[in-house]
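Let us work through a complete example step by step.
Step 1: write down the sequence.
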Amino acid sequence: MEDDYVHQEGHCRERGSKTYFAEHLFIHKNTVQYEINKIKAKTGLDVREMEDLQTLILAAKWYASGTGKGKKREDQC
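Step 2: predict the structure and record it as tokens.
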């Protein structure tokens, strides 16, 4: 999931262009498509759709914050 977060953020920054995204990460554009397909298979959401992409980014940020992993943050009682 953490790798997915990186991919989602990059995809958003590159405005959905697989070519620009692949160049940014120094990977082949088919690898980008493979990762997009994996995300869609896991979640049912399509990163090419803005609403779905926003949902995935919010979920990934929540997960990365630690609250999505079942851990309490230090500032929580």
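Step 3: interpret the result. Residues 2-65 form a domain with the Arc Repressor Mutant, subunit A fold (CATH 1.10.10.2840).
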